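Input chain follows. Return structure tokens only.
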Amino acid sequence: MRSEQDPFAQHLAAGRPVRVGILLFSVVEVLDFAGPFEVFSVAARVARHSLDGAPTTFEVATVAARKALVTARHGLVVEPAHGFEDAPPFDLFVVPGGIVTQPMGDDRTLAYIRSASDRATLTASVCTGAFLLAKIGLLDGKRATTHWEDIADLRAAFPAVSVIDDVPFVDEGDIVTSAGISAGIGMSLHLVGRILGPDMARRTARQMQYDWEPD
């Protein structure tokens, strides 16, 4: 049972949804952002149908540097809901991965990640999104993970981070990092379980026909 002092519980008790923001950038991995987007969106739909009279539990939106088309990996073109300038504060902020060269070298994007994370109750990364969190110091002194192929690089580049391999995700309370690509789906279901309870996470996974059980 969630504590009444938990910020997410307070939002839901007040009838306000948990606002989920998902970062987009050039060459972002498609499933890194689409997987969490689907999980939280489906969870909101399942909760409405399962819990009689329940208000909306999650509102999910994408955000990029500008409210203009973003070309994700493999050429998928996506239009974000918000640019940095007009984005609302998010309660749960998700930083996906992919080829992160552009955002790693862009001070404006890094500053936005820092600002959005500071305002959020929880920040999560998928895959190489962990490099972006590490770059701004959010993982210093914490355990974290990333795509198996990038574990050694994350360790070498950020020695202040305790990098864990062979796990689907690492939950450090206000920071959660997942392994690569499809692992972001399991991590997001874990977060649904944290916020709405494990039964709703199972129902969400079943609705998605995704083979998953809470750890």
